[in-house]
Structures are given as C-alpha cells and as structure tokens.
Design brief:
Elements lengths: L2 H43 L20 E2 L2 H23 L9 H12 L3 E2 L3 H5 L16 H7 L2 H11 L6 H18 L14 H10 L7 H8 L7 H20 L1 H28 L3 E2 L13 E2 L2 H7 L8 E5 L2 E7 L5 E7 L7 H12 L9 E9 L3 E9 L6 H6 L9 H21 L14 E3 L5 E3 L4 H4 L20 H6 L4 H17 L4 E3 L5 E3 H10 L17 H14 L10 H9 L7 E2 L9 H9 L6 E2 L15 H4 L2
Parallel strand pairs: 1-2, 4-8
Antiparallel strand pairs: 3-4, 5-6, 6-7, 7-9, 8-9, 10-11, 12-13, 14-15
Helix pairs in contact: 1-10, 1-11, 2-8, 6-7, 7-8, 7-9, 7-15, 8-9, 10-11, 15-18, 15-21, 18-20, 19-20
C-alpha cells in the first residue's frame, strides 16, 4: 500500500472519529449547549444592559418545566434580580438600568425563567410593575450616590465585615448585621415598588462593590441573596471524561473512543441509580427551599425515629423548657452534636406545607443574635398522632430566665454581662424588624426566649414561630399570641400587632434584666403589679436608680444605669406611638444619644383606690417627664419619636 493511500485512510479515520466525538459531545451537553446558544442570541438582540445569564448556575435543571409555587418562586425570583443588579453594579457601577430598557430586561428574565417553570409570568404573577426594575431606593442609581449618603466610618465597617468569604455562618452574620444598620440609619426611603427597595440596596452594594469574590460566588450568593449554586459534581466529571476520551482516542483510535463513550454512559446511569437508591434509603436528607431558583437554606429534614433517638423517646429528664406551644428537649444527634428540639402540640397534617415554607423562611434569617435553625420534622404516627418538631442549636448557658430567676444559689449576673445581653437582644430584634426580608414580628419576647451561648452572647429564640403556628396554639387566646406580662396593651386588647408590640416586650425584658424582678410582681397576696408600672412609679418620683437590683456586681456609671432604666420605661410605655423603634433603641444604647422625653402614662389597670384618688386630685400632670440628668427630646435622623407621641 502506498504512503499516500495510508495517509488518506488515516485522515478519513480521524475525520470519522472527530464526527463521533462531536455527536457524543452534543448528546451530553445538548441542554447546556442550547441554553448557551439561546443566551447568546438573546444577549445580542436585547437592549437590557444587565446579564441575567449569571443566574443559570443557580437554577435547578433537574426540575425543568415544573409547576410554579407562587409564594416561593416570587420570593426567589426577586432575590435573583438583586443578584443580577449586584453583578451590574460590579461591572458598570450602576444599581439599576435605564428606564428605557425596563421592558427588555423583564423579557430577558422571562426567557430565562420559562425554561424552568411552566406558565409563570414573573411580572403578572408576582405583581411587579415594568418600571420597578429600573427605579430604586431614594432615586439612587450609581455607586457614588450610594456612598455619598453613608458616612465613611460605616462604609469601612461594611468593608471589614463583608470583604471576605461569606460561606460560613459567622462571617455571613457579621456582614448582614453591618448591612442592616445602613438601611436603618441612612436609607430611610422613599422606595419605588418592591423590586429595588431600600432593604435590598445594602446587600446589592456589598455583593457588587465590596466583596472581592463577587455576587456569583457561592458564599456571597447564599449569604446575601439566599441563592445556592445547583451545579453538580457529576457534570464536571462528565466533561473530564470527554477530555480523557479525546486524548485516548487520538492515541488508540476510534474503538477506544467508542468504549469510552459506553463506559461514561454506564457510569452516569450507575450514579443516577445510586442517587435514587440513596434518596429512598437515607432518612435524613437536605431539602431545598428554592425549588428552581437554587436553595436558600441547608435545612435537614429529620425522621421521627431520629428525633426519638436524640431525645431518648422524649424523656422527661431531657425537658429543658415548657411553653404554650409545647416542650423543648435537649437532644444528641447521631453525630454527637447537642441540639434543642421544640415539639409543638395540637398539630394536624393540614398545615404542613405552610409550616415547611415558614420554617425555611425563618432558617434563611442569619444574625449573630438569633438562634440558628438546623432542621425540622413532620410525621404522623399511630400512637403519637401528628408531629411537628423544630431542631435548633443548643445554648450551653441556658436562658436569661434561668440566670435571673433560677436557683437562688446561682451567682447574680454582673452589670457588664447584663448590658451585653440587653444590647445583643436589641440588635437581634432590630434585625428581625428591618434586616430580614420579609420583616418578622416575634410576638413572644420574654426572658426564657433569650438564650445565652458560652460567651453570654444573647440569642433571640423562637423568632417567627408564632407567625407559622396554626390558630389554637397560642398562649392567651385563639387570636393573640404571647405571655402574660409581656404582651403590649394594644395587642392584648385589640389584636393590633406591629413591630412596636415587640418593643413593649423588649422593654419588659430590659426591666427584668435591670431589676431582677419578674414581669408580674406580687406586691401582696391580693395585689399583683406589672414591673412596668412599678418602674414607672419610681422614675416618676426621680428615683430611676432604685430600679437597679441590689447586689449587682461591677455597676457602671450612674448616668449609664439611669439611661438604661429610662429606655426600658419608654419602650414599655402603654401608648404605642410613644415607644421608639428597635433600631432607635440600638442607637441609644450603643452611643451617646440621649433618651427622648417620656410621655405621662395613664393610670394602671390594677391601681388601687388610693392611687385612683391621687391621680384624680393631682394637678401635676405636666404631660412629659424628663430625667434629672437633663435628657432632652430625642430626634433620630428622619424619625422623631416625640412627634409620634402626639
């Protein structure tokens, strides 16, 4: 055979080999290839300057074409927009695109979404108006405009907290805490719609301008936008297999390449069967709260058998707390870690879907002063009935209640520790009200729901539980949830619930921290006072320091102690609009800002006859009370609590 004929045959064989490889590549990458082609086509024809294709790594391709879950999908569709805006800020220095491109931006987003959710129009289903995607908080469009509104010291705090990997809870919590302060202090509105509101701007700024890893980094996306990459390891291995096939094929020819394709096909099928088998056998599995737009949390869904094993079949010896919702148990998981398990009572299977959704919303809220949620369990058994259980981190120092009102032999908390607990609790509540999306009203702030870690850092527990607990599982009635002594008057009497209902409860807890007295004080066998009325009676007489518990170690300066007493009395004022907001309280406690003047209080509901007669005959009702230290009416940025009280 001539050399030219041999060469011709070699080239022919090589051409056939390459054609087969291209077919294999098309087989394994058809979905991604078509999607990439569609993205390039859309990008070339669209006028939208934002790149929505960056969201593809956060989309779950295993559920393409599924039916929409409106509440979840709208929530995470919004988070997806925020991530795209952060990427736009990183590349172009702009928060929102020009208004003239709003329609094309929605079209680009819709083309992305329709591949994964059938019959789901983002704008109409979620109630977004076209212009909202191009209109932001306080008309801020550029990075420089945003930075001009925030003091350099606050920006430095954000850079220190957020310019690191946010993959773990601790750096994530530090970053989100610093961002919530920006919104509360400097981004006070107005908003246009809810797509690019003031609550989202700090997170967009941190991801697009501060964090060096960028918005699409796994840790940044999970922490700031609750979006998790859905790329699987098997996809990467498939690509490596193709590269390996090319190399081997070039060496040994077409037969080995075909064998490699057959091997890869068997390997992928084997992995699929193994994953399917594990999904049946493994009883504790990670669940996704995002469905198609990634996963917001890594909650664990425990089986009822695992919960029973962890609590020794709900042994009474393992009970560490009791409440209107049920008991709290100490438990040890199979990996040896200690947890707290809250077992709800009077449950039915009808509300499990809403329960699971609300659990995931709560689990997505991360803050150093909030108890972390690990997982949950829902089950129905023939003996125990229907079960709902929440699994949280166990705090080694128990609750604030244990230290204030536990064993009399226990050493009293010192002032520095009490001050730390008070500030930590205030920060946690402020984050729930102004940093969480959506905002969460706790509804049951009390000493037993303030847990303490090994460093006596306050962790607010049970936040949001009343929000997803069915009617009937409440403390006071089928309408009002809470605990006697802590519930705000307007909520207890009229069912009027606002963030300032939590403020009232915080004021009661703060008085307990300062005085060592419970929310309800037994003055005599026949008379019980609220600690709020008792403290007010002392403050009104100019004896604010008499509220402080005797024997407290390491007392601070008198003016600081008096300030805390006045904040507690003002926070627990019976009139709703007389109370400051939680972000204002944090500012007052952490800085030298003065306490606003305290409006006169109505006479107590449990006042005796002598008190009523003195109140009627008194002519000293001046209307406002200021402390002897000379505190002046307080003005907080653009909000003036003194004007609220009028």
């Amino acid at each position: 055979m001539s050399f030219s004929k041999i060469t011709s045959n070699v080239f022919f064989a090589f051409a056939v080999f390459l054609s087969l490889l291209l077919l294999v590549l098309a087989f394994f990458q058809s979905n991604n290839g078509v999607s990439s082609f569609r993205n390039r086509r859309l990008a070339s024809s669209s006028d939208c300057p934002m790149n929505f294709s960056v969201l593809r790594k956060f989309l779950d391709t295993s559920q393409n074409g599924r039916t929409a879950n409106v509440s979840l999908d709208c929530q995470y569709a919004l988070q997806g927009i925020h991530l795209v805006q952060a990427e736009y800020l990183r590349t172009d220095g702009l928060f929102v695109p020009p208004l003239s491109t709003a329609e094309s931006c929605w079209d680009s987003y819709q083309d992305l979404v329709k591949d994964f959710i059938s019959d789901f129009d983002v704008r109409s289903v979620c109630g977004f108006e076209t212009s909202w995607i191009a209109q932001g908080c306080m008309n801020i469009t550029t990075r420089s405009q945003f930075e001009s509104l925030v003091p350099e010291s606050s920006l430095q705090d954000v850079r220190r907290a957020c310019n690191q990997s946010l993959l773990n809870n601790s750096p994530c919590a530090s970053c989100t805490t610093s961002l919530s302060r920006l919104k509360a202090s400097y981004l006070t509105g107005p908003d246009v719609g809810n797509v690019s509101d003031c609550s989202a701007y700090p997170f967009i700024y941190a991801a697009g301008s501060v964090n060096s890893f960028g918005p699409t980094d796994g840790g940044t996306a999970v922490c700031l936008f609750l979006l998790q990459s859905s790329s699987s390891s098997s996809g990467g291995k498939g690509k490596k297999g193709l590269v390996f096939g090319v190399v081997v094929g070039c060496v040994v020819g077409l037969s080995v390449a075909v064998l490699g394709v057959w091997f890869l096909w068997r390997k992928r099928c084997g992995k699929w069967r193994m994953r399917k088998k594990k999904s049946v056998q493994v009883e504790m599995s990670s669940i996704s709260g995002l469905d198609s737009i990634g996963a917001s949390t890594t909650l664990v869904r425990f089986t009822f058998e695992e919960v029973k094993a962890a609590t020794r079949n709900f042994s009474r010896d393992n009970i560490i707390g009791k409440g209107g919702y049920g008991n709290v148990y100490r438990g040890i998981l199979s990996n040896g870690s200690e947890v707290a398990l809250k077992r709800f009572k009077n449950c039915s299977a009808a509300g499990d879907a809403n329960f699971s959704h609300e659990v995931e919303v709560i689990a997505s809220v991360r803050h150093v002063n909030l108890v972390a949620l690990r997982g949950y369990c829902t089950a129905t058994t023939s003996f125990e009935g229907h079960q709902r259980i929440i699994v949280c981190d166990l705090m080694c120092n128990g609750s604030l209640y244990d230290h204030l009102f536990g064993s009399s032999d226990e050493k009293k908390l010192s002032w520095p520790i009490r001050q730390k607990i008070a500030i930590g609790t205030a920060r946690g509540l402020a984050y729930l009200h102004y940093g969480a999306q959506p905002a969460i009203i706790h509804r049951d702030i009390k000493a037993s729901n303030i847990l303490l870690d090994e460093n006596f850092e306050a962790k607010v527990a049970d936040f949001g539980l009343a929000k997803f607990t069915p009617e009937g599982m409440t403390h006071l009635s089928t309408r009002v949830a809470g605990t006697l002594g802590y519930v705000a008057p307007e909520y207890a009497l009229y069912g009027q619930l606002t963030e300032r209902s939590d403020v009232y409860s915080f004021g009661v807890v703060l008085l307990e921290i300062l005085s060592g007295k419970k929310a309800l004080i037994s003055m005599t066998e026949s008379q019980t006072w609220l600690v709020t009325d008792w403290a007010w009676s002392l403050v009104r007489k100019g004896r604010a320091l008499d509220v402080i518990e005797e024997g407290m170690a390491d007392l601070g300066p008198r003016e600081v102690l008096e300030k805390y007493v006045l904040v507690a009395v003002l926070s627990s004022h019976p009139q709703l609009h007389a109370r400051p907001t939680m972000d204002q309280i944090v500012k007052i406690l952490e800085t030298d800002l003065p306490v606003p003047s305290i409006p006169e209080r109505p006479i107590s509901l449990v006042a005796n006859l002598d008190d009523i007669e003195r109140s009627v005959s008194s002519s000293s009702g001046s209307g406002h009370l200021s402390s002897s230290a000379g505190y002046q009416p307080f003005t907080f940025e653009n909000n003036n609590p003194s004007s609220d009280s009028r």
